[in-house]
Design a protein that fits this description.
Layout: H1 30-37, H2 42-51, H3 54-81, H4 84-87, H5 91-112, H6 116-145, H7 153-170, H8 178-203, H9 210-231, H10 235-266, H11 272-277, H12 281-302, H13 304-325
Keywords: Membrane, Transmembrane, Transmembrane helix
Transmembrane segments: 26-50, 93-121, 183-201, 213-232, 238-259, 280-298, 304-321
Region (Disordered): 1-21
Length: 333
């Protein structure tokens, strides 16, 4: 997990509140957290996609893929390449991972002539990435609310593995195998029960944090809905909820990146291009997303295979580099 645990180590950066006061409940502010971290409007995205016709849902996916999901992956490259201070922490590792990923992807494609194997790896790695990110943000909330104390390893693993199970089920691969699907249907009840138990435990904790509990509840309800859709063989609901989960993930990532950039600028840790963009980060991200979205759409129309290959490489770099940039730099002795 050394290079694939986004935000897991970020929680350790959050300062512990003073012993006589409760920690802050929000990472940025109630309104910001509700909209961009807890993504409380994800049911609205689901409703729009579910109630709309095929054209309406395609429009929702269009904006999600080109203007949210794609930019959130590419921005990781900017965070590393545009900040000499961050890149300088592990230059050899950043470069080595980039060379290995690009070389490996080109080798696989040249040998197979297709992207099937790479897309399978992407799906599995992405599942771990989703789960790690949700757990990492939950740990940030927990440290702020519990005076620097993060959830135990056991709780983190239960949370992550439950999310990974749902994402793996979402692919619908088991539907064609009746015996296997029947067995997994029983497992669905166990995982669903675990989700509910974790949710009950969260709301019964003695130290209440609306930020932490709200975030955890929003994530749990989303994946419970996905699990239910898969369990009852509702591909229409699976498709819309998967779109909502992708929006949730990418939005919270861009939000937590913005929080981190602001924090680094305040502490004068940022350098290079990132430091120049920090005072107008929101506008910069918006322009970046619009430009990349338009470019991605155009590339899809004219150079589909090449653009897809490049995006797979960027996705792998996003997963790998993301795990590094959120790790604390080892103390110098």
């Amino acid at each position: 997990m050394s290079t694939t645990a986004p935000l897991h180590e970020t929680a350790a950066r959050v300062s512990s509140p003073s012993p006589d006061t409760a920690g802050p409940q929000w990472i940025v502010s109630p309104a910001f957290d509700l909209l961009f971290l807890m993504n409380v409007l994800w049911p609205v995205a689901f409703w729009i996609g579910y109630e709309a016709d095929l054209i309406g849902h395609s429009a929702l996916q269009f904006w999600q893929i080109y203007f949210v999901t794609t930019p959130h992956r590419w921005i990781t490259l900017l965070l590393v390449a545009g900040d000499p201070a961050r890149f300088g922490e592990r230059p050899r590792l950043f470069i080595g991972l980039a060379l290995g990923i690009v070389g490996g992807c080109l080798l696989v494609q040249s040998q197979t002539g297709a992207l099937t194997c790479l897309l399978a790896v992407d799906y599995i790695w992405n599942a771990w990435h989703f789960a790690s990110q949700h757990d990492g943000i939950y740990r940030i909330y927990s440290r702020r609310a519990d005076r620097g104390v993060a959830p135990g390893a056991g709780q983190s693993w239960l949370f992550r593995l439950s999310i990974i199970y749902v994402i793996v089920r979402v692919a619908g691969w088991s539907w064609q195998f009746d015996a296997l699907d029947e067995t997994l249907s029983l497992t669905d009840f166990a995982v669903g029960g675990l989700f509910l138990a974790m949710l009950l435990w969260e709301w019964c904790r003695p130290r209440r944090s609306w930020g932490r509990s709200g975030y955890f509840t929003s994530v749990i309800l989303l994946y419970l809905a996905l699990l239910q859709a898969v369990h009852f063989h509702r591909p229409d609901m699976v498709l819309v909820l998967a779109t909502a989960s992708a929006l949730f993930h990418a939005t919270e990532y861009l939000a937590i990146v913005g929080w981190n950039i602001t924090d680094r600028e305040r502490k004068q840790q940022a350098r290079g291009l990132i430091r120049k963009l920090a005072p107008m980060w929101a506008i910069s991200v918006l322009m970046f997303a619009l430009a990349l979205g338009v470019a991605g759409w155009y590339a899809d129309q004219h150079w589909l295979k090449a653009w897809l290959t490049i995006n797979v490489m960027v996705a792998f770099l996003h997963y790998a580099w993301d795990g590094l940039i959120w790790k604390r730099r080892p103390a110098v002795r």
